[in-house]
Write a structure and sequence with these properties.
Elements (H helix, E strand, L loop, with lengths): L5 E7 L3 E8 L2 E9 L6 H15 L8 E6 L5 H12 L4 E2 L20 H14 L3 E6 L2 E7 L5 E8 L1 H11 L19 H27 L5 E6 L2 H5 L7 E2 L3 H13 L1
Parallel strand pairs: 1-4, 4-5, 6-9, 9-10
Antiparallel strand pairs: 1-2, 2-3, 6-7, 7-8
């Protein structure tokens, strides 16, 4: 493996920071760590050094780093970590980057970096028109028109966030894990919450997608990504593709367009 064909893609989100190592077109491995504002550059360095060591990769083989960050306080420690670890300055997804994606948003710079990256990946890998549903801290719907432009979308509270708010604001309601319930009608408080969250969220997602498909085209590609994409996507009437690594591949595409 040569240093020039290794790319580290980094998706710095509100819940997790996800790292993906590419060799050419192949995504070799992904790692994730919880997003903590107080985490230092030394902690990132130690984490990544350990990951590469276990994978049998010499850190000097990594020549390029592409980052999508929606948590500005992480940008400096991540940059410092990369510079100290392998003497590479990362490229961030920011206004002015060549995306190949006209952005119809007001103002364009308000679109989250992860949403742009997902839209780029969806257009490139699946075609357009398309809708990306990203099940993260927030659940976002991003629309790519048949002309290949980013048209905007929707932002909803995420699945886990909904559970946490319900637990924190209702004293007698417990926190539950999120999975498909065995029964539609819950026979206990935990089962009732689990059923309400799962089927309620599924109905919301499919209801929005039904409206979007009607507005766009019956040929619209629907791609799900993010932590709960497999859980919701497996039951959705509209989601056609579940791609947990969509953001990482979008970062790779953007790197190639801008190097």
């Amino acid at each position: 493996m040569t240093r020039s064909n290794c790319l580290l893609a980094v998706d710095a989100g509100n819940t997790n920071v996800v790292f993906g190592l590419f060799q050419g077109d192949d995504l070799l491995k992904t790692w994730r760590m919880a997003t903590l504002i107080a985490r230092t550059s030394d902690e990132y360095t130690a984490f990544l050094h350990g990951c590469m060591e276990r994978l049998g990769i010499d850190s000097n083989q990594i020549f390029n780093i592409m980052v999508a960050s929606v948590v500005p306080p992480l940008d400096l420690p991540l940059t410092q970590a990369f510079k100290e670890w392998i003497q590479v300055h990362p490229d961030f997804v920011r206004p002015g980057l060549k995306t190949g994606l006209p952005i119809h948003y007001d103002p364009p710079q308000d679109v989250g970096a992860d949403r742009i990256v997902n839209a780029v990946a969806a257009k490139e890998l699946y075609g357009s028109p398309a809708v990306v549903v990203d099940f993260g801290t927030a659940t976002t719907f991003d629309v790519i028109s048949s002309a290949g432009a980013y048209e905007g979308g929707m932002i909803c509270p995420g699945v886990q966030l909904s559970v946490e708010i319900l637990h924190s604001r209702a004293a007698r309601l417990p926190r539950v894990d999120i999975r498909k319930p065995e029964n539609l009608v819950g026979k206990s408080t935990q089962e009732s919450i689990r059923s309400g969250i799962f089927f309620g969220y599924l109905s919301m997602v499919d209801g929005i997608l039904k409206r979007l498909v009607a507005q766009l085209s019956s040929s619209t590609k629907i791609i799900a990504t993010g932590g709960y994409a497999s859980l919701i996507g497996s039951e959705s009437e509209y989601i056609q593709h579940v791609d947990p690594d969509l953001t990482l591949y979008g970062l790779k595409i953007l790197h190639e367009r801008n190097r």
